[in-house]
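Hi R.,

Here are the chain sequences for the assembly we discussed:
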Amino acid sequence: MGLPALKEQFELGVQKLAKRDWETEFGQADTVEAYAIVIDQGVMEFAAWRRDIAVQLNEALTSTLMESKNAGPAEALQAIDGVIVTVESCIVSLRAGVDEFGAVDTSDFLLSTQKRRYLNKQIKRGRQVGIDLYNFYVDAYYALLATRSELEEPDDEEAPGFTSGAALEQYLRSELG
Amino acid sequence: MKVAVTPTGAFRRDLKRLSNEDADATIRALSLFIEQPTATKLNFELVKHRRGFHSIRATYSTRILLRKKSGIEYDAVAVGNHDYVYGSYFKK
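And here is the predicted structure of the full complex:
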């Protein structure tokens, strides 16, 4: 899979989470135990999706680096920048979704203490699905930035290596002017 | 244990694009990384999907991307503007 196809996959991942109508699924679940089943399905579905995309991401980044050796980095840099923009936009959407899920409050639900505790546990697992997906996108974003850095031409002006924090600070502050 | 860091041209370009506040935090984080690479506040993380790369936290929305050259040598290669969500996120 190339970078353009990967870009589509990242967009689909966010749509997949958005399409998952947790509210309706929870509404249809008339017992706390049924909530757990809904969450179980989400956990499995997104874990499988992340595994698939991780393989595709690795293949796409490796082939991009290989192809750039023959064709030069310009086209690859343009393609990778396109995926980075998409992934960044997905990260913003996912963060909003995670925050929304974090706002669920069960204190008004008429439940026994034991059932409420169980429900809270399931909600926490549901949040974790979103967090895991969000963290996956953030990691993919850094993997893309890393690959981008490998494609870039070496520096015209090589900076020295630093083994002193103070010396590095002085150097970088002078660079900033 | 200290480490050695080389700020690449791409990193220095990214640094110049940051706000003064974020650039200052980025410089301080990288300086701390040299002196105390295991400092908890840096949240040193492996980039799982790209072997040989790590990231550290500069601010709650900025991370520095590092390429490991050898056991104690790193290149600072980019600044990213997203951070991971950690376990404590919903405990606030």
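Chain B has a mean pLDDT of 93. The CA atoms of residues 53 and 67 of chain B lie 5 Å apart.

Let me know if anything looks off.

Best,
T.
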